Amino acid sequence: MAAMRKQYEVTRPVYSEDSFAEQHKKIYRKHKTILNHVKDYLTCDSKRAKNAVLSLLPIISWMRIYRVREWLLGDVVSGVSTGLVAIMQGLAFALLASLPPSYGLYTAFFPVLIYFFLGTSRHISVGSFPVLSLMVGAVVTRLVPEVGPPANITDFEGLTQDQQRVLVASSVTFLMGIFQLTMGILQVGFIVVYLSDTLVSGFTTAAAIHILVSQLKFVLGLNVPGISGPLSAIYTLEEIFVQITSTNICDLVMSILIMVVVFIVKELNDLYKAKLAVPIPIEVIMTVIACGVSYGFNFETRYDVDVVGKMVSGYESPIPPSIQVLQESAVEAFPIAIVGFAVAFSVAKVYSIKHDYTIDGNQELIAFGVSNIFGASFRSFAASTALSRSAVQESSGGKTQIAGLISALMAMIVTVALGFLLEPLPRSVLGALVIVNLKGMLMQFREIPYLWRKDKLECVVWVGTCLGATLLGLDIGLGVGLGVELLTVVFRTQFPRCSILANIPGTDLYRDRKDYLHTFETQGVKIFRIPAPIFFANTEFFRDKLVEAVGFNPLRVLRKRNKALRKIKKLLMKRDHGITEVKQCNTVETTTPSALDLPTDLKNLPFQMNWNAELPDNISVPRVDLHSLILDFSAVSFLDISAMKGLKTMLKEFIRVDVDVYIVSCDAYILEKLNSYMFFDDEILTSMFFPTLHDAMLNVFEKYNENRIRGWVVRKTVGTLASRHNTAHVEGTTLALLDALNWIRAVIEGETEHKGKRLVAQSKV
């Protein structure tokens, strides 16, 4: 037995917007001007100064509440675990950036120091990210290719190829930081909202494909030059297959073995993460084993294995960016800045929600901007965050960025004192570690069937972004993805799913009549719902859908009526003044389209017209069975000027064919805009607006029943036009109408004399 539902009963008057405004006075708020906002923004006092300092240095906020006894041990353990992962990923991701591996350790150190003071997230691990590394690597290989001369840049003179590449990577990172810092100062952190989860998923999947292709040469031990630009992945695969017979078996076997072991242990970490205090650092373990085996069996000389080689010991002096490189890489640096911030912000948002604290998008832009500028000065490349590394930092007990600071100190120790131990490490091991960590991004292919079932347009965005980024490159592909995403938004708003609503019996609810079995539609009333903003691009679509819903074109009906009325008036003139005089008038009178669009002039007629009655054979006017049209504006968020013009014209067309139009649930802002635009006139009145759909329907019922009570009836006369009118005037008006139209019919049939006998057809009320 179904549970009894709660019921409610409300007794109130039927309101229109006018009557509601009369009974309930509205508070008119005074909105600040742009100048006032600027003055408030530039005003400074002690409170604002304090808030500004706390905003720019979030470390002050969380250091004041730091619980040393509860949090410090967790931060230390987390920092050590994260540091081990950050070192391995830094070495591996440096290969993606086409740089010597040791510079990956710089990225694991310098940006973290700045983010420790300026960042608002307490759990993300700042450092290298494979997608950003690959995007930086595309610029590096374009300006400093492995085969052929580098670009004509003055700052390259006297530098080795590795030094030139480091200069390019640091300059691109510097410009990336400038872009991020500028966006943060201008408070445009909201820009990340334009990168939807679907777009980011498709983009990172394409990046994973690029990363996989770029690492195959290390896994197979081939000497394949770096290729950038459109179709670079295809050209790289072509080069790999050309050289496939030269595969280094030692590199291949070692890579496969490491990928299998790391994959299995990572799966076990996920399976038993609730029981493990700290995830097993399998990457570090396999790296240490590979280093020992490579050194002990002398893989470099015996099996011709490409190893990491000379590691930079300590830190080099800071360098300025190259202005020429900045000019050459400006187009690529901006999407790198956007992607880096978007990834970091999305990861930070996940952990802020989980641990109940807030993050500031604009401050994050400033933090990453300054971090990348500072890091670039010391030869590091683009920094963001990696989901896997951040997961290690959070899951191993990290509470604050002290864990990040400890991981940076571990990277510093390796750089300063222990770097030489990594020199025999085979590069194929780093490539294998990169590939095995792509599992999460490559598994995003499973989203395609899900998106296709749930939302085909979202699936188009995913596939379009992935294909564009895979084939055209990550920078162009991001633009393609944004374009596809914006096109889907335009498509949704330009072609919304309009519907005709009907009442759910026994309620004041109205739903799409196609969605429910038992609905009630009032005869002569149409309720049309517009589920999108109305603007210049969808005004015509909205009009076409409305004409389709009501079943007639009001402008065509109006023109037909005006033409028919002209014929009727001429025939009446023939009766009253003679045929010859009327013909002389016809030679002067012309009919223009603009005249036919004017309201029908029924003045000086000896009868009242009913356009739905039977007309003579040569007078054809479409029948209109609609007396009330209700437009549901509850989902209309704005109207532009073009839409207001189109709406005004359309409403007048319906009003001029005797259809009462009502607009319901219109937003107050739109009503204010309509008033300021001078939307209302003698035909379009404010009284046609109602606060709810049910108010409008009750008003229609009241008006229709009142007309019936007052005696407005429809008289049907054989062979004549009838009328709806007050019973006090039925007899005289009907006789005059019959007299005129019978004479008109006689003229149409060729009779030129008006018979004196009055022909009266029987009528039935």
List the helices and strands and how they pair.
Layout: H1 17-23, H2 34-42, H3 46-56, H4 59-64, H5 68-96, H6 102-107, H7 110-118, E1 126-127, H8 130-143, H9 161-185, H10 197-220, H11 232-242, H12 249-271, H13 282-296, H14 299-302, H15 323-355, H16 361-377, E2 384-385, H17 387-395, H18 402-418, H19 427-436, H20 439-442, H21 447-454, H22 456-472, H23 474-494, E3 499-503, E4 510-512, E5 525-529, H24 539-550, H25 554-577, H26 579-588, H27 593-596, E6 628-632, H28 641-656, E7 660-664, H29 668-676, E8 689-690, H30 693-709, E9 713-714, E10 716-717, E11 724-725, H31 730-748, E12 763-764
Based on CA atoms alone, the radius of gyration comes out at 39 Å
Alpha-beta content class: mainly alpha
Residue share in β-strands: under 5%
| Average pLDDT taken over every residue | 83
Q: Count up the domains.
A: 2
Which stretches are low in confidence, meaning pLDDT under 50 for 5 or more residues running?
Answer: 582-590, 708-738, 747-765
The coarse overall form would be elongated
Query: Main β-sheet: number of strands, strand sense, barrel status?
Result: 6 strands, mixed
What order do the strands of the largest sheet run in, or round the barrel if closed? 4-3-5-6-7-8
The portion of residues assigned to helices is 55-70%
Transmembrane segments: 71-97, 103-119, 126-145, 165-192, 199-220, 240-264, 276-297, 333-353, 365-382, 402-422, 460-487
InterPro entries: S04_transporter_CS, SLC26A/SulP_dom, SLC26A/SulP_fam, STAS_dom, STAS_dom_sf
Keywords: Membrane, Transmembrane, Transmembrane helix
Pfam family, one: STAS
